[in-house]
Structure formats: structure tokens, C-alpha cells
Design goal:
By secondary structure, this protein is of the alpha/beta class. The protein has helices at about 15-30, 40-50, 65-75, 85-100, 120-130, 135-145, 175, 200-205, 225-235, 250-255, 275-280, 310-325, 325-345, 345-355; strands spanning about 1-5, 30-35, 55, 80-85, 105-110, 130-135, 155, 185-190, 215-220, 240-245, 260-265, 285-290, 305. Helix 8 crosses helix 12.
């Protein structure tokens, strides 16, 4: 089997890491993997260092026929082209049409929660896609809300997962940031961005600042927004409660060093991975109930769910985690069991593999 992935971003991000992890697992499975990507040295080098074949293309989207011609010249029979957004799916479908080879399959994974388009051009694309896979039930429902003209038998759902190393060395966050041993640590990690609900999170912290806990923020964002967050911390008199840890890599050792995780997103994320990272380390989570996380975080079983933009509800949930060690232990134990049972990367990969082999 041969798989050709298309990666068209100019910077390394979540999509590039997704393809990297999947390609590594495929190569370990004896599959021949090739990456089509833009001629960006940093991206090409990272894939090449992992032993992947890389072919640079312009990848200009629906009007870029030249990239499709070049792609068609190197695609083999009985191969699968795996696109990760619609503009690259156009290139893949053009290439197969130019080859006049129906034995080449085109699969696309949809990593966003967006409404489906139903223009003439997109209807053509939907006809030529073999499978369209969503990362959550939410993403699929959002796509279908505009009633796009597509055979629903082509649609599927596979929750994205994370690769967890065999050994994760826990970082002693308390020692690193001079936090007392008896102080409970709640942690957010990810992009520091308004849509992550960080303003609501800081308001929630201000409401329960008398409790013995610290909020550790791991990640980076724009200078302007980061400055806004730090100013908010000062204005709300919670500087002693909040630690700005900045960007760290790898992040799992920090996740393992926290007592619970927090995701307060105000937008509908398809399948956010940060809750899974906490669950993989046996840590419970407090998350908003507006995204795909509600499909695997179950209220009072492996975490707590709250409405978005509701500082009072978020404060109450965090307070419960801080005050009740038995609750953290019970939810964390179930979170680990759920991750190991049906959220781990092997489970995800087996579902993707079946789609390739159909």
C-alpha cells in the first residue's frame, strides 16, 4: 500500500504534526508514505528527518492545475491520496482525473467545525471524493447543516488522538515555580488566544482566589493578548494564583505534574486534544460543553463540563476539583481507563487503516 499525504501550510502546526504522527505509524506498519508539501525548508526537513519521502509542490488550491499535473506523474496505481483540507482535496481529485485511474482513492479528513459549501465546484469535489472523515460528530453535523450535495455513505467519524510515549517523566511543577506542596495545580496548555476562554478562566480564578490552588498557563500567544492577560491578572489581584509558564516542549511531562486540566474554549472545536493529554496521564479535566470534547468527556465520570463564557459555573467546577481530592482521584482513574480503552492512538489508527483498506 502507498499513501500520499498533502500538507499545504507554510508553518508547522497541528495539521503538520497530525500528518507526521500518522505517517510514522504507517511506515512502522510497512506502508510506503510520501508527503506533498509546499517548498518550506523547515517543514520538508522535519518530514525528511523522520525518513519520509517529500515532494515540494505549489499547492495553490482549487485553481492550481499545475500541481495536480505534477502530482499525477508520481502517483502509483492502487494508492491512496490523503488530503487534510478541501483545497488540497481539489488537487488530489484533479490528479486522479488526469491519471484516468479509478484505482487511486482520495480520502479527506476534516479537522474543522464548519458548514459545508454547496457551490457547483464543491458539488463536483464531493462526487470525486471516496471518503470524507470528520474528527467528531459535531464537525459532521456542522458540515451537514447546509445540506451539501454529497452521498452520506462517504462520510465517517474518527476522533483524533495523541501519541503517548511509553515513558513520561513527570515535571515537578511545584519545585519549578515555588508552589507549596499542599497547593492544588490546575493547568491550561495551548495557544494563548481569546477563543480559548482565558478571560473567563481568569474571572473564575478571581471568584475563588481564597482557595489553595494555582493556575498554570502553558503556551504562548500574541504579545498584545499575552500582555492583556498579565494586566488582567494584576487588575483582579490574582498574581499569586497564576503562573505564566510560556511555551514548553514536550508538554506531557507538565500535564503529568498537574492535578487537573482545564479547557474553557468559547468556540466549537471539533476534537480538541488537550483534554485527551490530561486523560492519558490519569488527570481529570474541567472543559466547556460546546465542542467535540463533550463526546468523550462525560460529566461526573471522567471530568466536569460547564457552559462556555460562564465564569461562575467554571469557578464552581474548579473549586470542586481543588477541594475534593477523592473526586480528582475517581475522575482521573476513569479518564485514564477511557483513554486506554477507546481514545488512544492505536484505536484511532486502526479506524483510519480500515478506511484505507475498504
Amino acid at each position: 500500500m502507498k499513501i500520499f499525504h498533502i500538507v499545504s501550510n507554510k508553518e508547522w502546526g497541528g495539521g503538520e504534526q497530525y500528518v507526521y504522527d500518522l505517517s510514522q505509524r504507517q511506515m512502522a506498519d510497512g506502508i510506503d508514505v510520501t508527503i506533498f508539501c509546499k517548498p518550506v525548508e523547515a517543514i520538508m526537513q522535519k518530514y525528511q528527518e523522520a525518513g519520509m519521502k517529500v515532494i515540494p509542490l505549489a499547492l495553490g488550491g482549487a485553481l492550481d492545475v499545475k500541481s495536480a499535473w505534477k502530482m499525477a506523474k508520481v502517483i502509483d496505481n492502487h494508492s491512496t491520496i490523503h488530503a487534510h483540507n478541501f483545497k488540497d482535496a481539489f488537487t488530489a481529485c484533479y490528479a486522479r482525473c488526469l491519471m484516468r485511474n479509478k484505482q487511486v482513492r482520495v480520502v479527506m479528513c476534516r479537522h474543522l467545525t464548519r458548514k459545508g459549501k454547496n457551490t457547483l465546484l464543491y458539488r463536483w469535489l464531493y462526487r470525486h471524493l471516496d471518503r470524507l472523515i470528520f474528527d467528531s460528530e459535531l464537525s459532521k453535523s456542522a458540515f451537514l447543516s447546509t445540506e451539501p450535495t454529497i452521498d452520506e455513505k462517504k462520510l465517517g467519524i474518527v476522533h483524533t488522538s495523541i501519541v503517548v510515549p511509553e515513558t513520561v517523566t513527570t515535571v515537578d511543577i511545584r519545585a519549578q515555580y515555588d508552589i507549596p506542596e499542599d497547593c492544588v495545580i490546575g493547568m491550561f496548555h495551548g495557544r494563548l488566544d481569546p477563543e480559548k476562554g482565558l478571560d473567563t478562566l481568569l474571572e473564575a480564578v478571581a471568584q475563588i482566589k481564597e482557595r489553595n490552588f494555582r493556575l498554570v498557563l502553558v503556551g504562548r500567544g500574541s504579545e498584545e493578548y499575552t500582555a492583556h492577560l498579565k494586566q488582567t491578572v494584576q487588575e483582579k489581584d490574582i498574581a499569586e494564583k497564576v503562573v505564566f509558564a510560556g511555551f514548553v516542549h514536550p508538554v506531557l511531562p507538565y500535564v503529568a505534574g498537574a492535578d487537573f486540566g482545564i479547557l474553557a474554549s468559547t468556540v466549537q472545536e471539533g476534537c480538541p486534544l488537550s483534554p485527551q493529554e490530561y486523560m492519558s496521564q490519569g488527570r481529570p479535566v474541567v472543559v466547556t460543553n460546546n465542542g467535540g470534547q463533550r463526546e468523550y468527556v462525560v460529566q461526573e465520570q471522567n471530568g466536569l463540563l460547564v457552559p462556555p463564557d460562564d465564569a461562575k459555573a467554571l469557578a464552581e467546577a474548579i473549586a470542586r476539583m481543588v477541594d475534593d481530592a477523592a473526586l480528582r482521584q475517581r475522575l482521573g482513574k476513569q479518564a485514564k481507563a477511557d483513554f486506554d480503552d477507546h481514545l488512544n492512538y492505536t484505536h484511532y489508527y486502526e479506524q483510519i487503516k480500515k478506511i484505507y483498506e475498504e
